[in-house]
Amino acid sequence: MKNEKPTIECLAVFEGGGAKGIAFAGALEAAEEQGIKFSGYGGASSGAIIALLSCFGYKGSEIKSKLKRDKIINLLDKKFLILFYWVRFMSRINYFLSLTFLRKKIPYANCCIGLLFFIPRVFSFVICYLNPISIFTCFFTLITIGVQKGIFKTDKLVETLREYAFDKVYLEVSNSEDRKEKIRSLTFLELEKITGVKLKVIATDILTGTAVELSSITTPDELVFESVAASSSYPIFFRPSIIKNQILTDGGISCNLPSFLFNPHEFNRLPVYAFDLRTRFFMREDAGKIKISIFLKKLTMSMIDASNNIISDVTGGIIVPVIVSPRFGTFSFNLSDEQLDKIFNQGKVSAKRFMKRDFFTSSMLPAKEYHMYASLIYGNVDYLLKLIQNEIEILIEGVKLQINLYTDITTNQSRIVAFSHSNNFNCKAEYNSYDLVDSDAVCVNAWNNKQIFYSYDESNNRTKIFYPIERSNRFDANYNGLNNKMLALLELEFQAHYLDISFFEDNTIGGAKSIKEVDFSEDSATIIDGYCFVIRNSMLGHQAIFHESKNTHH
To answer: Where are the transmembrane segments (predicted)?
Structure first.
């Protein structure tokens, strides 16, 4: 297969953010405009919802439209929603009866004037919170929490997520009722088969306090929508979910930014963009005026952010700050369309600003071909191939030779691409790529089987040798061939008959009639093993250096 325009695969993880989650839709749109495509999504809490919608194929602007139409407050049980409105109403009454709006304008240092507000504060407290309705509301809420472990069910959230899926999956099912039934039983494994995109979400096991991964790998047969709802179930506010005999609640409790979901060894250390929701920082001149309540809140968030940063750094994550105004709270469930647009735009602007100055992103985007992106990650090893070519020319005099090096840069190990080349007869490099399901290609068989393959084209008099390069080389003390993964594939192409190449041994009587009858000599295998060891170390070293630069800015 000839080289074609690539889609550079990245992974995205979204932090929890409650009502501010629409900012992630803005950040997604910024990534789309930068030409970044995600082939896997993960998240916790409201970030899990964004991850699910993205997995379905919704664009950032489409997610914004969905969240504006179905505001969070509309996803709550109507019979319990009156509690929300009553508390909000009493808070407004208390604000005016206690003269809070006046007290804010009077300096706190003036204690004498401050004491004058003691009487209206007591009066407002009695009126607002000791009336029969408020007392009944309080007891009813406490009983509900005691029995159900939370106030609101997640049923309506689950149903809304299913509605979002209706326009994206099982479109081949024309009957709407049949499609709805299939959507109800959609599992993680089936979702990945349909979309070709990985979804991983985090929930918290209340009994053990540990983070629980829900995905096609750990829970392939679990229902997607119920799992995402479990990840989004803020404690006490929403009732916990029971999945696999575990009591699960909001994933943000155990890990609010789970960039570890995409293990670097499992996903070839592809770039993981960890979208971190933040509020605007205080200016330095205001630092001395910060109130104790705000100080404690910032202290808590700093501890959480520090943990997120460490996790993202260890797992190779690129932390993308998604900055929104502090006036929008996590529980601002009744935001207007104008406010939601503002949060969306703030998320988009801050993410776009970061991506334009981020070294990793700015260096990745100019890579317009698959082989360019592979060279960006693993380095240009043409000089090593040239050294190998010179060594082989000494062993086999006068032979015309070209060498190609293949690797895989996809999330699901589905395609290999030639990214490095050398030859001794001025042949133009062809950076071909092959789908790993294309079994007709010899290089694909060599890659999939992790074995030495060789072939001979009689019409062109060309002999090819394909030599696998695994992540763990047989020279390593901890080499494990069974669980080892492919890193690259070395191709040696000779313009000569296989019997004229000293790498092969003919042990037949009367001479070999085909290349299948010759053996690859043990000495030759040792020589090429040494070549591959050097190539492997160079590739892994460059990969490590490249990913260390992930949070370097211009």
So the answer is: 38-59, 80-102, 122-147
Selected residue with higher pLDDT from 211 and 545: 211
Count CB atoms within 10 A of the CB of residue 29: 22
Please state, in angstroms and rounded to a whole number, the distance separating the CA atoms of residues 49 and 291.
Answer: 34
Which domains does the chain show, CATH number per domain? 9-75+153-364 (3.40.1090.10), 79-148 (no CATH), 370-548 (3.30.450.40)
Residue 155: active-site member:
no
Say if residues 27 and 275 touch (Cβ distance below 8 Å).
Answer: yes
Counted residue by residue, the chain has a size of 554
| CA distances in angstroms from 91 to 87, 97, 100, listed in the order given | 6, 10, 11
What's the Rg (C-alpha) of the chain? 30
Place of tokens 């799992």: 227
The backbone torsions φ and ψ at residue 361, rounded to the nearest 5 degrees and listed phi first, read: -65, -45
> Rounded mean pLDDT of 135-157?
76
Residue of 94, 75, 90 whose CA lies nearest to 138: 90
**Rounded-to-10 torsion of CA 230, 234, 238, 242:** 30
| Residue 330 structure tokens | 């996590």
Nearest to 239 by CA among 76, 109, 103: 76
How is 300-342 classified by DSSP, letter by letter? HHHHHHHHHHHHHHHTTEEEEEEEE-TTS-TT-TT--HHHHHH
Tokens 């005099």, residue?
A: 397
Cβ 18 vs Cβ 46: under 8 Å: yes
3-state secondary structure of 172: coil
Q: How many C-beta atoms lie closer than 10 Å to residue 111's C-beta?
A: 8
The count of C-alpha atoms lying within 13 angstroms of the C-alpha of 123, restricted to the half-sphere facing its C-beta, is 10
Residue 475, pLDDT score: 55
Q: Are 418 and 4 contacting, i.e. CB atoms less than 8 angstroms apart?
A: no
Of 205, 232, 250, 422, the active-site residue reads 250
Q: Say which DSSP state 451 is in.
A: S
Q: What share of the chain is helix, strand, coil (3-state, %, to 5)?
A: 45, 20, 35
Active-site residue flag, 476: no
Which residues contact residue 283 at a Cβ distance below 8 angstroms, ignoring those fewer than 6 apart?
none
509 confidence band (pLDDT: 50, 70, 90)? confident
Q: What is the DSSP letter of 476?
A: S
Region 436-455 average pLDDT: 86
Q: Which residues contact 223 (CB under 8 A, 6 or more apart)?
A: 184, 185, 186, 187
Q: Read off the pTM.
A: 0.73
Give the span between the Cα atoms of 297 and 507, in whole angstroms: 78
